[in-house]
Write a structure and sequence with these properties.
94 residues; Glutaredoxin; single chain; four-stranded mixed β-sheet; 31% helix; alpha+beta
Length: 94
Amino acid sequence: MSDSTILHVCHYGTGGAPFHPCRRAAGALDDAGVEYTLHVFDRNRPMGLFTKGKRPELKKLSGQEKLPVLELPDGSTISGSGDIVAWAREHAPA
């Protein structure tokens, strides 16, 4: 468990095309004013290709092997850019 919110992303980080899932998730958190730490989880697997069985730490953390994953301070996780965007909109600081 961590003291902060951590956004786990692929090797693109917050770069890449505007529709890239990791960039969308980071942008939604930024727009909502949510403070988080960015963690580039996997620098050598572009677009998540050929990752099945290659991300055991991510699977242990979130139950699956796809990025992005938002790790909350209570240890729970939110997987996928759509769910992270929705969470960010609901939890924007007042």
